[in-house]
Amino acid sequence: MVECAAMDRLQPYILLYDGHCKFCTAQAQNLKKIAGWRVQMESFQDAAVLARYPGLTHKECMKEIKLALPDGRIFGGAHAVFYALSLNPALRFLRWIYGIPVLKQLFDLGYSAVAAIRYQIQGRNCPDGTCGLHGRPEKTAGNS
After folding, report:
1. Where are the alpha helices (DSSP H) in the chain?
2. Who's near 26: CB < 8 A, 6+ residues apart?
3. Roughly what angle, to the nearest 10 degrees, separates helices 101-116 and 77-85?
4. Phi/psi zone of residue 43: left (φ > 0), alpha (ψ -120 to 50 degrees), beta?
5. How far apart (Å, rounded) are the C-alpha atoms in residues 79 and 106?
6. 18: burial class by Cβ within 10 Å (0-12, 13-18, 19+)?
7. Strands 74-76 and 13-17
8. Which of 86, 122, 139, 144 is deepest in the core (most CB within 10 A)?
9. How far apart are the first and last CA of the chain?
């Protein structure tokens, strides 16, 4: 049993982020740097990634970042961010902070507000030309 517990601690946490969102990509990279080696980043915009998580839909992932834990649980939004940050031993207390009801509501509200305008913050990065699927198409030099 001890061997299984040790194996679980070595399993990665998978951060599912919007790879078409420049802001999301930058913040996921920052989160990974702080959280450390236990977090791996994967863009849910890659169909092969979502195929590994049958309980998740593209629509759900478009609303918020997701953190898939080695035990199969999946957290989203501010909860995912706080949990990933708390994987850094120096920031473990953040799990407790997020659990305070009033603060949790404020963090969730703040996260939702930023998520709603994420493409307006730094733009999009859609190498396959699918940015128009996310809302208003990006302006180009000839398009005002």
Report:
1. 2-10, 22-35, 47-51, 58-63, 77-85, 93-98, 101-116, 118-122
2. 122
3. 110
4. beta
5. 12
6. buried
7. unpaired
8. 86
9. 63
Q: What tens digit of pLDDT does each residue of 70-126 get?
A: 999 999 999 999 999 999 999 999 999 999 999 999 999 999 999 998 888 877 766
What is the DSSP track for 76-96? EHHHHHHHHHTTSGGGTHHHH
Residue 4: which residues within 8 A CB-CB, separation 6 or more? none
Q: Per DSSP, what are the bridge partners of residue 42?
A: 16
Please give the torsion angle defined by the CA atoms of residues 74, 82, 59 and 131, in that order, rounded to the nearest 10 degrees: -130
Q: What angle do CA 69, 90, 2 make, to 5 degrees?
A: 50
Query: Reading across the β-sheet that carries 74-76, which strands appear in turn?
Result: 39-43, 13-17, 66-68, 74-76
